[in-house]
Amino acid sequence: xxxxxxxxxxxxxxxxxxxxxxxxxxxxxxxxxxxxxxxxxxxxxxxxxxxxxxxxxxxxxxxxxxxxxxxxxxxxxxxxxxxxxxxxxxxxxxxxxxxxxxxxxxxxxxxxxxxxxxxxxxxxxxxxxxxxxxxxxxxxxxxxxxxxxxxxxxxxxxxxxxxxxxxxxxxxxxxxxxxxxxxxxxxxxxxxxxxxxxxxxxxxxxxxxxxxxxxxxxxxxxxxxxxxxxxxxxxxxxxxxxxxxxxxxxxxxxxxxxxxxxxxxxxxxxxxxxxxxxxxxxxxx
Length: 285
Prior knowledge:
Blueprint: H1 2-6, H2 15-40, H3 48-51, E1 53-59, H4 64-70, E2 75-80, E3 87-92, H5 97-106, E4 110-117, H6 119-148, H7 151-174, H8 181-207, H9 212-244, H10 249-280
Antiparallel strand pairs: 1-3, 1-4, 2-3
Helix pairs in contact: 2-7, 2-10, 6-7, 6-8, 7-8, 7-10, 8-9, 8-10, 9-10
């Protein structure tokens, strides 16, 4: 791992060559989100926490395909419950549980629980989630500017963190992964992951002794190892949660894999190019 990191020769590439890939992917992601907003009204698919709906937990010997045909209302998801034989969590966009309960009972399903979320309450939850993400991002940006007190190194961290959020959101749209309270938590964690890797790089380059490339490679030895280890852990979590039928965790793991992979690119291409420009061409900005 460390040996392969040391083989990277940044001096062979210009700053423009380094930023073209991360900026191109950021632009494509922004277009995907904008197009989805125009076409379907939301940049990413929304879960029932943000749209309102009904959740049933039922016990039945029917297959997921048979369960879907039982109800007149479209079944958004059928999720097996880990460790509970023939138990499923069903979600519907409809927020009136009465007809759904009647249809489940008519089919002979044992109903363990019923949960409803009104559209107005879901809208409040959606607003709170958006405000929470904005506050977290704004707080991160202010903290970074206070730490470095220089424009370009601070912008490098903020731009990388912004891209680490936008790219996973676009992939959520492309892979039809719903925005839920779990995936919102994953996006908040990505802000922390991104800032951690970028601050590690910036501190090595700006505050420690040694040349630019030597400092960059020292940061990469630690940062790349940490990020790849985290990606591997999230892949294992997503696979195990999918096999065991644990709700939310597969989506959380996948979103974190998207974001951490984007963070590798943004930190060691976008951020490095901006830091190199600052060190050699725009000192003091």
